[in-house]
Amino acid sequence: MTEGGSSKKKFLRMVDRIATNKYFQQVTDYKYVKRAMEGLSNTDIKLQLEVHGLEGRLALNLPSPPHDRIWIGFRTNPQLVLRARPAVGARALRFAHISNWIEQKLTREFEKVLVLPNMEDILIDLMTPTPVSFE
């Protein structure tokens, strides 16, 4: 089992325990708490992501015709420099540990998807053979 999967399950179990707690249920019956929860559920959550640099050795796989795809992937983990700016509603979150956590998660996910043996494929329409009709 992956590390991310088990931590996600633990987090969901914790949220379930809190939500089913009788004290939590009593607190959610208060009109002020209900109003705050309704306002929060309609709030936009945004993430602004800036990629400042990406450096690494890229591998290109060009299959022989009639394939219409190009496969790309990095040979080793690339140096990825990015900056995440989360925002809830109109308010930007200025907590460095939250931004760092998001950046680390995005970097790991990038490495899972684009570092060999994993590759991403790109469809190239120019390489698709067009049928020729003879009349």
From TrEMBL:
Any one of the GO CC terms: endoplasmic reticulum membrane
Database matches in CDD domains: SMP_TEX2
GO molecular function: lipid binding
Chief subcellular location: endoplasmic reticulum
Compartments, record wording: Endoplasmic reticulum membrane
Protein name as annotated: Testis-expressed sequence 2 protein
Protein source organism: Papilio xuthus
